[in-house]
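By way of example, what follows is a protein record of this kind.
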Amino acid sequence: MYNDILPDSKHAHLSDAHAETVKATLGPVGENIQTIANTFYSKMFAAHPELISDLFNRGNQKQQAQQKALAASVVKFASHLVDDSAPDPVIMLNRIAHKHVSLGVTEAQYKIVYENLMAAIAEVLGDAVTPEVAEAWSAVYWLMADVLIKAEKDLYASDGVADGDVFRRGKVVEKHELSDAVTAFTVEGEFTQPRPGQYTSIGVKLDDGARQLRQYSIIEGDASRYRIAVQKDGEVSSFLQERIDVGDTVDVTLAAGDLVLQPGERPIVLISSGIGSTPLTGILRHLAQNNDPRRVTYVHSDASEGSWAQAQETRELVEKLGDGALKTYFRGDDQRVNVGELDVAGADVYLCGGTGFLQSLRDDLAQLPADKAPANVYYELFSPNDWLVA
């Protein structure tokens, strides 16, 4: 699922009265938004236990990652509505929309979120939530929801499926270790063609009966076959590595994700860290298989050569490129990625890794002089907080 047109956040406007109320209360809401988010999820899961069992990732909830993501997104969108100097959150909204369609989220679920979020705001802020305040923040929520609902409907339509109809059964046909911590799985089923860099949600039924989901980038794939890399980390990944074998079936969602290879003639620089190599290896594979004429540089950071799960595959793909280069940095050898050593001038740069890695690299790229700066920087993280670095 993919759409070249970004969500339309520019036409979302509050009334003058609502804008004044949101401005006046943005501080208190922002200061308490983490508590509000925690209260919201507690209320929603108490009323709808099926959501934590079958839709939301329990590991993210335990780490409060999902709560932080919700808090950041609501405050950022509200700031955009009342402050003309605030950045347009369109990239954040696009990323959220892709995450949602990969989980099969539909319009009806927004009402559930609304009811429990407003109840949480009222509980945390108490008497400060007058009818006027509740009405203004309701307007903020539904403006944001309307933008997302429209974007998600367009994404479902891009693959010709009904809203939420993204789950398919996939049969595991290959499984092999890439490193001590990472295992590759290939699943076959009636899917749709992924774009280079996209991901799929894999669902498994755990011993307590919960169907838990986690998103994994697609190394390579077509409409009937996805190959993913699974690093042992969390309930779903551990279950896949320890309990799922060739011949077993799992839930697989149609490919989604906003980090995809962009067309053009500019040089390409792919920079990854750890398991962040997975989507960029997918992009690299597409470039190599299609004899793309663009100059490609692949840069990877890892603990060591041995921990780099896609080392062999990456080296082979770079060799297939007529004008490709590979640079590696291993922390065990006290090496760190130095953008000053890279030729990124006028290039499309793609980043994938942990939050700290991405924030550091984005800052370093932003500080380059104009004649050495990239044309564009695209990125992906494996965290619900990915829009925090937008």
The chain has eleven helices and eleven strands. The longest helix spans residues 16-47. The chain has a mean pLDDT of 90. The first strand starts at residue 167 and ends at 177.
